[in-house]
Amino acid sequence: MTDLQRRAFLKSSALAMTAALLGASSRLSATTPKARILVVGGGFGGAIAAKYLGMADPDLRVTLVEKEPVFISCPMSNEVLSGERDLKDLTFGYRGLTRQGIAVVQDEIVEIDPVQHFARGASGNRYNYDKLILSPGVGYRWDAIEGLSEAVSERYPHAWKAGPQTLTLRRQLEAMEDGGVFAIVAPPNPFRCPPGPYERAAQVAQYFKRHKPNSKILILDAKDAFSKQGLFQAGWKQHYGEMIEWVPAAGGGTVEAIHPDSGTLVGEVEEYRGDVISLIPHQKAGAIAERAGLTDATGWCPVDQQTFASSLHPDIHVIGDACIAGAMPKSGYSANSQGKVCAAAIVAAIHGNAPPEPSYVNTCYSLIAPDHGISVAGVYALDNGRIQEIAGAGGVSPMDADARYRAVEARFAHDWFRNITADMFT
Length: 426
Description:
32% of the residues lie in helices and 25% in strands. It is of the alpha/beta class. The strands form eight sheets. The protein has a five-stranded parallel sheet with strand order 5-2-1-9-20, covered by helices on one side.
């Protein structure tokens, strides 16, 4: 399947999912009583779930609680490091949702009581609900690497939540002398945005090529393979020569400790030093999910993969990076797709109907150079209660594509970003 065919298939799948959601609302009785739906987290999953709930049934009382005043997108934030994009281009407000009747509250949820059906904010406010959608993103396993802590991460920024750490990392790269080493520590699976560390290497290499051509990039990886690996490595070589070195787990790339004062990374075989270090921690579900008793031994949230209702507390639905979603990766587009499926299931349940047959999609673009984009896409279906990828419906960019094809995919990447954020916030 070509990239253009994949895009058409993904678009038709998304339209079918939206039609199922909105079609369900047309069959609802106008006398159906309201239900209180609380959405916690205003990112790729939560914002879209809130919007589509309101679209499906204006009589629902939908409240979105988000601790930040604005949303800053992690997808495309690596372009801030190359200088191709400014952080303000990734920043979105919630006025579009409020114009559609969604109550948007800035607060941090610190407690969820699944028995009494309420959540409490750091403000002291109590939020009662009939159904809750939790989209908390990821948390970090600070104890997985000796010497790492939240405070240390401010010095060696992961920037895996776009915002201040993205700018810190950019300033550190600007201050680094030409000929220095930028080290990226890539975490084990599963983690948010599987291609992200490798796109980061490419975007920083783009900056180095222009401004610090004698510098090097070292990727220390806890894995022996990564998403779109062949495409990335070919693109690195084409544009940046030998500037980027990847050390897999089998080659000693797993980092076991960091000495913060010296910036020394202790691997299984040898020690490494970086003049600038982006240490991306091991990950788990966001902290509120753990506090609410929604995680299992893996650190992630088990759910009914048809409705995203928690396997532990069924009136709470968990979507996005925090949930265990079968074959779907932890990505912004996956969260968007899950938010729509979850909204449709909740609307159906409130009105006594069976959930519609779900369809799930994901697509992820990565930028190796300004005119060199690559992608991976997938379409998924429910099979015996588990989300499985439909063979042949997705795929990755062809290895032998020419420069024009790569440039088209780079343009598609920016179109994808404009489209998904418009869907969320307008």
